[in-house]
Amino acid sequence: MVNPKYVSRFYSVDPCAPQNNVIHVGSTYWTAGGGVLTGAISTPGVGYLPAPQATAVATTTTTTAGVGTGLVLSITISALGVPTVTGIINPGKGYIATDTVTIDCIQALCVPGTLAVYTIATVTASHAQEGCGISPDCCKEYLCGETYSLRLDVKGSPALRFLDHNAYTTQDAYTGCCPAGAIAPVAVDSTEVMILWANGLTTNPIVGPFVQIVVQAEDGSLWYAPGTSAAFLAANGADTWDNYVSPGHVNGTCAGLIINGAYVDTKFGDCTFQLSDFYEKEPVRLYASEVDYNGDPCAFTTLCVVTECQGLQVQGLGETVVRDLTMSESYRQNFLATDLRIREITQGNQIISSIDRSALYYRYMLQHNVPRNYNPSGTFDSDQYLLEVFSLVPLTTFVTDTSDWLSNCGVCEIDTYSCSTVCVVPISFPAIPVYNPYNVVACY
């Protein structure tokens, strides 16, 4: 029995999806503006080849008004040859509201005619880093005949378990010899510097397993790591950076890196589940900076580094729920056997299978106490209990009825804990590979 006047607290905790830490180095959609944009086709165009409505095609654009570059749209073409924008694959960079772009003819989508025009309505403002003397537009030119160094630190539980210390590395990028007869060093294509850094970080055995990197070139195009699936590249209208051919440096334009903290931890299967099995919840945290030969990030004008998304830890994971359930059963002397056959005999497998360990659960907590007097001394005691209800779906009626039941409790607290806002990253990252898929105990 739970007496409402002895309830001290009732609260609910929503499940929260994890969020990767995403940072930007140099000139990208996040630092140069235009990262999240909206718009519509203002001129439908003439000459697009009819196609079924379900056919989605990635197509590039050419800026007709403004200075933005790199926008890639996903479109469908109706049976009448009218294009419709279904999504934005690459937001490009440098766009402002009222800019217009022409939807190009690629992949034999159209015959000569009037091309459709897409007008941008809103864009995300640029996010420039403060401190260390960086340029306000996050655009830094690189000169020939120089070596530039980028340090990346990966911190958090995954790195600590992997190395017993936080992971870090410094990657060098040599810009090559200056042109013959050049009196002073000249600026080079900064995209090639970013590719050298990205390739070094991706192939590095220390930090490589924890990051995914996309290079955004000077022209706003996106370049992915070699080995990215052809299907992903085709769907996103992109290519791998080993195929990049430099068109030369354009004054006033710069490239950048988009670094995604990404890690999949291997874990044991359900058949041999033990309470002591580890499961990872903490996202890795990324810190990047350009450094000099002494490793000092602020000794000179450094490269812009800005965080787009802070890492958020998952909440309500089924892995946690199954452990709480087995602990509750243990208080009832119903221990989970470590031997698989004994577990089957004692129906321990049913306890484990009742929870979807890959799902996220809502939690509802009711905290109350039971006051009583111990005889014959008459000593007053108050045992406190916490009842926990978890569910795959929100229990709205349960919360309403319980809150009404406790409305006259006087001193109890009724709270709801919701999730932090999860970032919407406007570009796609490839699926995260599992580096050791064989670390699973087979069922016998």
Describe what you observe in this structure.
- The chain has eight helices and 21 strands.
- It has 444 residues and is of the alpha+beta class.
- A six-stranded mixed sheet has the order 15-14-13-16-2-18.
- The protein has three domains: 22-26 and 128-309, no CATH class; 35-122, no CATH class; 318-356, no CATH class.
- The longest helix is centred in the C-terminal third of the chain and has 14 residues, at 318-331.
- It has helices at 29-32, 157-163, 190-202, 230-235, 318-331, 340-345, 348-353, 396-405, and strands at residues 7-13, 22-26, 38-43, 56-65, 69-77, 83-93, 100-103, 117-122, 142-143, 147-155, 167-174, 187-188, 211-216, 222-224, 239-240, 256-261, 285-291, 305-309, 362-374, 379-391, 413-417.
- Residues 436-444 have low confidence and may be disordered.
- Helix content is 15%, strand content 31%.
Q: Over the alpha carbons, how many angstroms does the gyration radius reach?
A: 28 Å
- Low-confidence segments, given as residue ranges, are 436-444
Q: What do the pLDDT scores average to?
A: 83
Structural class of the helix and strand makeup?
A: alpha+beta
Helical percentage? 10-25%
- The span between the termini is 44 Å
Summed up, the helix count is 8
Topology as a string of helices (H) and strands (E)? EEHEEEEEEEEHEEHEEHEEEEHHHEEHE
Strand content: 25-35%
Oligomer kind: single chain
What characteristic shape results from the CA principal axes? elongated
| Biggest sheet: strand arrangement | 15-14-13-16-2-18
Number of strands: 21
Number of domains: 3
Taking the sheet with the most strands, its summary is: 6 strands, mixed
